[in-house]
Amino acid sequence: MENASYVTLSRQSGLLREMQSVANNIANASTTGYRKEGVIFAEFVRRIEGGDSLSMGALRARHVSDLQGALTRTGDPFDLAVEGPGYFLVETGEGERLTRAGSFTPGPDGELVTPDGHRLLDAGGAPVFAPPNAEIAIGTDGTLSADGRLVAQIGLYRPTDPLGLQREAGVLFRSEDGVEPEPGGRVLQGFLEKSNVDPVGQVARMIEVQRAYELGQSFLDAENERIRSAIRTFIE
What we know:
Layout: H1 3-27, E1 37-47, E2 53-64, E3 71-73, E4 80-83, E5 88-92, E6 95-99, E7 105-106, E8 112-113, E9 119-120, E10 136-138, E11 143-146, E12 149-153, E13 157-159, E14 165-169, E15 172-175, E16 179-181, E17 186-189, E18 191-193, H2 199-235
Antiparallel strand pairs: 1-2, 3-18, 4-17, 5-6, 5-9, 6-15, 7-8, 10-11, 11-12, 13-16, 14-15
Helix pairs in contact: 1-2
């Protein structure tokens, strides 16, 4: 296979992965707490015989957008939104995970859990407990009071290394290097944060990627036909 084909194939592979990322963003445009994901390409340049160089593009990383999503009032005392930086920390079967999705409900024992049953953790890393039949008030600093009595403080966290934040499933993120407290965010009770995806912008990007992919495929088809034609000429 010639260098031109290798270069085009590397480009097609990157475009295909970007298309998958854009499609996932569009599918989650209405998912509470979802954060848009983008891709980062890198260029690989290598000298080849004859003094020329070969340049190939490759998708090297994924980037999670930190733009604030729109906040909607629900009035539910256990619906929480983060205004500014930071994530809630929840306990899953695979370990602690970060999330911006703040729809919680009290479990049978009073612990606040996500719709999937993941327990919300406080500033000390312990489950957050809300006494049943009590009037719950949550301050912007995360302090949770029941009938005027301080019960817990909901923690806000950030990844120790922002580049190590990895999407695990939907609205859950894994931090490869651990987490640390985030002092800059505010907790809003009775609100939920919408997805920060711009559907119109993502659809436009999908069209651009699709056209770029089709152009590359046209080149590969033409290159394949050129090689087949050359082989037929040599055989004859």
